[in-house]
Design a protein that fits this description.
Number of domains: 1
Largest sheet: none
CATH topology: Tetracycline Repressor, domain 2
Oligomer: single chain
Shape: elongated
Length: about 200
């Protein structure tokens, strides 16, 4: 229990360091100083600054995802759920990027910093999208999808959204992101609903 509290304290204390210096310029000494811990204590819990960064990034990632996830409800339509989720997540992402200006510059130079974290945590958003799709199927908003295709579709959605977010946040290459995400959602839902109508017509035949 004490170990968990000390580790949590180090992670929370290092947030300000990464905000101020980014990733490349941060040293373990900087983190130890911010946490008011000795180097030996710091190295007891973390092998290097990359391990500390991963924990900070995961914490920040969850702070972005959780408020967006909280807005998703079974009573909403699938369009409403996806629009609300994307809208709230996008606002949180923009706010975070303004806090971590130097870190973004480091990620531009070494995208593996963010990519490895995305690969580790993408299952969280996969589950969110699978749940949203399942509700829509139960309410007959979209056509039934088998489990394999459900997993593939959720993974595709996560990958597509994340790629667009990366282009906007790191390179500024996409304008009116919220409008474009909503357009993407509309295309997706229309396709799934069209598939439902197509299957219905095939059954009648």
């Amino acid at each position: 229990m004490k170990d968990d509290l000390v580790k949590e304290h180090i992670i929370n204390s290092s947030v300000a360091v990464f905000k101020k210096l980014g990733f490349d310029k941060v040293t373990m000494d900087d983190i130890a100083k911010a946490a008011k811990k000795g180097r030996s204590t710091l190295y007891y819990y973390f092998k290097n600054k990359h391990e500390v960064f991963e924990q900070v990034a995961e914490m920040e990632y969850l702070s972005i995802i959780e408020p967006a996830k909280a807005k998703i409800e079974k009573s909403n339509t699938i369009e409403e759920n996806l629009r609300l989720y994307n809208e709230i997540k996008l606002k949180s992402l923009i706010n975070k990027t303004q806090e971590y200006t130097f870190l973004l510059e480091d990620i531009k130079q070494n995208f593996n910093l963010a990519h490895s974290l995305f690969m580790k945590l993408r299952h969280i958003e996969n589950r969110i999208f699978q749940e949203t799709l399942t509700w829509a199927i139960e309410k007959k908003e979209i056509a039934p999808i088998n489990q394999e295709n459900m997993q593939f579709l959720a993974m595709t959605m996560v990958t597509a959204y994340s790629s667009l977010e990366k282009e906007m946040l790191l390179y500024g290459s996409i304008e009116n992101m919220s409008v474009r995400l909503e357009w993407l959602v509309n295309i997706l839902i229309k396709g799934l609903k069209y598939d439902q109508k197509l299957k219905s017509s095939q059954i009648k035949l």
